[in-house]
Automatic annotation (TrEMBL), chain A:
Pathway(s) the chain acts in: Cofactor biosynthesis; coenzyme A biosynthesis; CoA from (R)-pantothenate: step 1/5
GO biological process: coenzyme A biosynthetic process
EC numbers for this chain: 2.7.1.33
Gene: PANK2
Catalytic function, reaction form: (R)-pantothenate + ATP = (R)-4'-phosphopantothenate + ADP + H(+)
Native species: Amphiprion ocellaris (Clown anemonefish)
Subunit composition and interactions: Homodimer.
Protein name: pantothenate kinase
Keyword Zinc set for record: no
TrEMBL record, chain B:
Molecular-function annotations in GO: ATP binding; hydrolase activity; metal ion binding; pantothenate kinase activity
Needed cofactors: Ni(2+); Mn(2+)
KW Hydrolase (keyword) present: yes
UniProt keyword annotation of Transcription regulation present: no
NCBIfam families with a match to the protein in the record: panK_eukar (TIGR00555)
GO cellular component, one term: nucleus
Protein name (Swiss-Prot/TrEMBL): 4'-phosphopantetheine phosphatase
A GO biological process held by the record: coenzyme A biosynthetic process
Upper lineage: Eukaryota, Metazoa, Chordata, Craniata, Vertebrata
A Pfam family this chain is assigned to: Fumble
Domain Damage-control phosphatase ARMT1-like metal-binding: 451-758
Family: Belongs to the type II pantothenate kinase family.
Record region (Disordered): 1-20
Organism in which the protein naturally occurs: Amphiprion ocellaris (Clown anemonefish)
Catalysis: reaction(s): (R)-4'-phosphopantetheine sulfonate + H2O = (R)-pantetheine sulfonate + phosphate; (R)-4'-phosphopantetheine + H2O = (R)-pantetheine + phosphate; (R)-4'-phospho-S-sulfopantetheine + H2O = (R)-S-sulfopantetheine + phosphate
Length: 368, 783
């Protein structure tokens, strides 16, 4: 890491997912006067544009709170910026790249995620850019391990919830992810991938599910008429899922003791919606909450079964579904702890959805 | 989760025709003798179970006392028709909308005053408790739903052949029935009610709910109702079957542009369910597409969890049930697809023909524990049962118009407990039937036609068998209607009672004949044939004894084959040889010359030159010439060689097959004429046992327990199976762990053609199991 490398700026890593494009940008802060003179105008302009704004166009956003300061990367010191925008605005992004003559910089653009494949020809035709395509799971794991290793000051990268089964005492606590293997890595994007990681280079995709963040948002849009993730989460935070779901106690009057099922457990997600009267009495907020709970608990169930099958006790949840979604994180922490009788620990990472993009950037600097 | 209570919306009642077109006494049969009741009330369907006794006419034979010369006639035995009481379980499934009408009907016909309690299970049991108690005056006794479900599941898996099936939407036959594995445990039951319960069953009373999911049938219904404004479950499924999920779901190719090659994820795989509805305009989605997407989402999710649990507990048999599955090809298909995807074919999704009845059966069994129902073997009565998908409007509009939405299952308590023949090489892979007519459309056409053609003759013979009963013609007509209706049903739904086979067609006919009190239409014919054949016995034995050893061996085999030609059940024979019963030698003209179609006679002859077998088990076929002039001389030879012989004959009548009762009398008569047979009986070296069956065919996995015991005790090392029904329609490919001899004459030109031979071709199949060369001659293995 200490050795200066000759990779030309700008340094980007990109992850083009089904819903969001994640972009990490390394802003060098150790530019010498000599370099400054040689730096072409296009490069300066890109740097200025990205670092002086926190929003780009209508939908691009820089997550300032995630920015990593004074990072030494490949012998250079600088700041790592985290930017995202919806995948459907990729054409606007390409247009901007074209306007700013990005292609004149002769840089390699390292990209991962399905979009790296799907939009490869668009990059070429619309912005005259050649993509270096990378496997998303390789990048994800590389990114997780790297970020966890470089974050030393400020809020801890990895955290968990203490007392997850007691809502009043449930608090976020830092966690040191030393000696992390084996771990189960659950990436919740539009869909979900579950990986068993045994070392940096030894992992397997255990399974996945199509019930992910995209399902939550998609169903919320259909059920409530909302149109953004933030809106959906806001509604969910105000709703009550027990009006929508049928609980064990709704059927058995209390716990189903014969099988150790507590009365509060959900017996049938959306089960109350079989009844016309109940359909008419629920609010949009209730529906949003029920959708969130249903999707989250289901991910929890599948994860728990994978952990048992793979004999792994530590689970790290990442992905943009968890962004500003404490509700889901606490639910996952609860579910892992309760159903495993304290055996499983749910861990979370601050840079949730950016690991793939970070991995792509690392590939640019240190080709594996 | 178990199927839940309080599903307020009735899924289908409001468009249903509420009139019951079938007279209720054809549905709630034998109520006057009903004594134990159980009821399972689900979200939309009620299942009623009761135990009843049925009076049947049975034909009995009784030997005349010949020494006293009491009988003026020269008949060997007399036939009398007696009443016999047998036990039967009735199960009826109907929509909750009919519950009150049905309870009233039951109340009006309930005679038995000993009944005080009705066992109840299912979510609706609570809701209807008061109504049931008021209407029937019985105390409702609630039983745990899951316990009932498992009890019922064990019961059907043990007692109903072809209960479980694999569903393959695009195959020639959508239903592939599983052979009955004698060892049903352990298995996983995934019950998809409003939620999902995953239960591991390890033994009759040992089961555990190992997991579940809240995403189940209730989620499909509830969420589906919200998304599509469609209230009924069935309608939602119909919407789903018309939709395109790719309009709503985000596929791998929507993200990648193609497949995600290095992970083996194909482009058409769903990456994110409903993923497209987050980005496009809300108005863009059709109800059908959303319903389809929802169906896929839920089915895949359940399939995935089921696989994870199956893997964790190392189980490969996974049965699916619950209202989400019940008779819906759409959900059976999506669940099957999901299981195949997640296990890469290692685990098969299994479904049950009587899945809807499990709770009611289980509740009934709970209440009937003092009668020890699990100690008996039970058999599905094809005459009284509706068959799979009887109420599916798409599958069977005809049946639906007849019986509304009522579905019935009847099970007879069998006299004898049935078990595997201990000599089956691999009981779990044994399939009795040679041709599966559900898969072979050509053969199905032929046999259905054949049975329809033969119906007039059967009716005639049935009437003729009861000349003193005036209403016999009327009953015979009812039999004709019933059986013709069954044939029509099977034409549309060959899978109605499991795999359709010649055996099942024959058995269904026997069940229908019994239903209308024609217990033994051939009794008189059999009697006449036996009488005549006996007269030739001594002559036949004498002529055989005059032959050299080697000539005799061949004459004996030819005798069995020739005797077997006289089968009044086979079409070709009854047309061609209604000639006066002939002496054995005259019959031989029908037989083809050697080499026969299947011919291992030389190996058999070599074997006969070797040491005698310890004990031979002989499954016999017809009365008359067959048993008396064909089988008995053969048995005699075996006895003379020092081989013990166990003769296995049917417990009850079927066509002109000799029954155990008849054979007892015949053997005694022969013993009186023949010292070899007499000594055999006296020294217990010749034994008569019943097979436990009343079928013209033979299922070696359901035989009398006593037979199995005798076979084991006597260290049986040779099994002889004779006749078309037992050696060709069934057991042609049966692999035994000892030597076996299958002998038959093909008396059906179509079948002969199929097997590459002509009418009256001979099958003589002597087999020695691999790795067990017959004792003395290396060369004797059939080539």
């Amino acid at each position: 890491v200490g050795v200066k490398c000759n990779i030309a700026f700008p340094w980007f890593g990109m992850d083009i997912g089904g819903t969001l494009v994640k972009l990490v940008y390394f802003e060098p802060k150790d530019i010498t006067a000599e370099e400054e003179q040689e730096e072409v105008e296009n490069l300066k302009s890109i740097r200025r544009y990205l670092t002086s704004n926190t929003a780009y166009g209508k939908t691009g956003i820089r997550d300032v709170h995630l920015q990593l300061q004074d990072l030494t990367l490949c012998g250079r010191t600088g700041n790592l910026h985290f930017i995202r925008f919806p995948t459907h605005d990729l054409p606007a992004f390409l247009q901007m790249g074209r306007n700013k003559h990005f292609s004149s910089l002769h840089t390699t653009l390292c990209a991962t995620g399905g979009g790296a494949y799907k939009f490869e020809s668009d990059f070429r035709t619309m912005a005259d850019l050649q993509l270096h395509k990378l496997d998303e799971l390789d990048c994800l794991i590389r990114g997780v391990l790297y970020i966890d290793s470089v974050v030393s000051s400020g809020p801890s990268e990895c955290y968990y919830f203490e007392n997850p089964t007691e809502p009043d005492r449930c608090v976020q606590k830092p966690y040191t992810l030393e000696n992390p293997y084996p771990l189960l890595l659950v990436n919740i994007g539009s869909g979900v991938s579950i990986l068993a990681v045994y070392s940096e280079n030894n992992y397997k995709r255990v399974t996945g599910t199509s019930l992910g963040g995209g399902t939550f948002l998609g169903l919320c849009c259909l059920l409530t008429g909302c149109s953004t993730f933030e809106e959906a989460l806001e509604m969910a935070s105000l709703g009550e899922s027990t009006r929508v779901d049928k609980l064990v106690r709704d059927i058995y009057g209390g716990d189903y003791e014969r099988f150790g099922l507590p009365g509060w457990a959900v017996a049938s997600s959306f089960g109350n919606m079989m009844s016309k009267e109940k359909r008419e009495s629920v609010s949009k907020e209730d529906l949003a909450r029920a959708t969130l709970v249903t999707i989250t608990n289901n991910i929890g169930s599948i994860t728990r079964m994978c952990a048992l099958n793979e004999n792994i006790e530590r689970v790290v949840f990442v992905g943009n579904f968890l962004r500003v979604n404490t509700l889901s994180m606490k639910l996952l922490a609860y579910a892992m702890d309760y159903w495993s009788k304290g055996q499983l620990k749910a861990l979370f990472l601050r840079h949730e959805g950016y690991f793939g993009a970070v991995g792509a950037l690392l590939e640019l600097l240190h080709p594996s | 989760m178990a199927e839940c209570s309080g599903i307020d919306s009735n899924p289908s009642s409001h468009t249903m025709d509420k009139s019951i077109t079938l007279p209720p006494d054809e549905i709630f049969r034998n109520l006057e003798n009903a004594k134990r009741f159980a009821i399972d009330i689900g979200g939309s369907l009620t299942k009623l179970a009761y135990y009843s006794t049925v009076q049947h006419k049975v034909a009995k034979v009784r030997s005349f006392d010949h020494t006293a010369k009491e009988a003026a006639s020269d008949k060997l035995y007399e036939i009398s028709v007696q009443e016999e009481v047998t036990a039967r379980l009735h199960f009826i499934k109907f929509e909750n909308a009919y519950i009150e009408t049905c309870l009233d009907f039951i109340k009006d016909h309930l005679v038995n005053t000993e009944t005080k309690v009705i066992k109840a299970t299912g979510g609706g049991a609570h809701k209807f408790k008061e109504l049931i108690e008021r209407k029937l005056g019985l105390k409702v006794d609630k039983e745990d739903e899951m316990t009932c479900l498992i009890k019922g599941c064990n019961f059907v898996l043990k007692n109903i052949p072809h209960e479980a099936f694999v569903y393959a939407k695009h195959a020639d036959s959508e239903f592939r029935f599983q052979t009955t594995n004698p060892d049903i445990f352990p298995y996983l039951l995934v019950n998809i009610g409003s939620g999902v319960s995953i239960v591991k069953v390890e033994a009759e009373d040992k089961f555990e709910r190992i997991g579940g999911s809240s995403i189940g049938g209730g989620t499909f219904w509830g969420l589906g109702a919200l998304l599509t404004k469609t209230k009924r479950f069935d309608e939602l499924l119909q919407l789903a079957s018309k939709g395109q999920h790719t309009n709503v779901d985000m596929l791998v190719k929507d993200i990648y542009g193609g497949s995600y090659g290095c992970l083996g994820l194909t482009g058409d795989l769903i990456a994110s369910s409903f993923g497209k509805s987050a980005t496009a305009d809300k108005g863009d989605f059709s109800k059908e597409d959303m319903a389809k997407s929802l169906l896929h989402m839920i089915s895949n999710d359940i399939g995935q969890l089921a696989c994870l649990y199956a893997k964790l507990h190392n189980l490969s048999r996974v049965y699916f049930g619950g209202f989400f599955i019940r008779g819906h090809p759409v959900t059976m298909h999506t669940i099957t697809y999901s299981i195949n995807f997640f296990t890469k074919g290692e685990v098969q999704a299994l479904f049950l023909r009587h899945e809807g009845y499990l709770g009611a059966i289980g509740a009934f069994l709970k209440g009937a524990e003092e009668d020890n129902p699990n100690q008996y073997s039970w058999g599905e009565n094809y005459a009284g049962s509706s068959g799979l998908m009887s109420v599916s409007p798409d599958m069977n509009p005809m049946q639906r118009a007849r019986s509304g939405t009522f579905d019935m299952l009847e099970m007879d308590r069998l006299e004898r407990q049935l078990v595997n023949l201990p000599l089956l090489q691999d009981p779990s892979s044994y399939i009795p039937d040679t041709v599966d007519l559900t898969e072979d459309a050509l053969a199905r056409e032929y046999w259905l036609y054949c049975f329809e053609e033969a119906l007039d003759g059967v009716v005639k013979r049935a009437v003729a068998s009861q000349p003193d009963m005036l209403e016999a013609a009327l009953r015979a007509e009812k039999f004709r209607q019933k059986y013709r209706h069954k044939l029509q049903t099977l034409r549309h739904q060959p899978f109605a009672y499991g795999s359709l086979t010649v055996r099942s067609l024959l058995d269904t006919r026997e069940h229908c004949l019994n239903e209308f009190n024609f217990p033994d239409p051939y009794s008189k014919i059999k009697q006449r044939e036996n009488d005549v054949a006996l007269k030739y016995y001594q002559k036949a034995v004498k002529s055989l004894e005059e032959l050299s050893w080697e000539e005799r061996q061949f004459a004996l085999v030819r005798g069995v084959l020739a005797g077997n030609v006289f089968d009044w059940g086979a079409k070709a024979v009854s047309d061609k040889c209604l000639i006066p019963l002939c002496a054995q030698t005259d019959c031989v003209v029908f037989l083809s010359e050697r080499p026969w179609l299947v011919d291992s006679y030389n190996q058999w002859l070599e074997r006969m030159k070797g040491p005698p077998h310890k004990c031979a088990l002989f499954f016999v076929d017809n009365s008359g010439v067959d048993i008396i002039l064909g089988v008995m001389p053969f048995v005699r030879e075996l006895l003379s060689r020092g081989t013990e012989v166990v003769l296995a004959s049917n417990s009850g009548p079927a066509l002109n097959d000799v029954t155990n009762g008849e054979l007892q009398i015949l053997t005694e008569r022969i013993a009186a004429m023949d010292p070899v047979i007499q000594a055999g009986l006296r020294d217990d070296r010749l034994m008569l046992v019943q097979s436990g069956s009343s079928s013209p065919c033979l299922d070696l996995s359901r035989l009398d327990k006593v037979l199995a015991m005798v076979v084991r005790e006597r260290q049986t090392d040779l099994v002889i199976i004779e006749g078309m029904g037992r050696a060709i329609h069934t057991n042609y490919y049966a692999m035994l762990s000892c030597e076996s001899l299958k002998m038959a004459v093909i008396k059906n030109s179509w079948l002969a053609d199929r097997l590459g031979g002509k009418l009256f071709s001979v099958v003589f199949k002597y087999e020695v199991p691999a790795g067990k060369p017959s004792q003395d001659c290396e060369t004797s293995t059939p080539s």
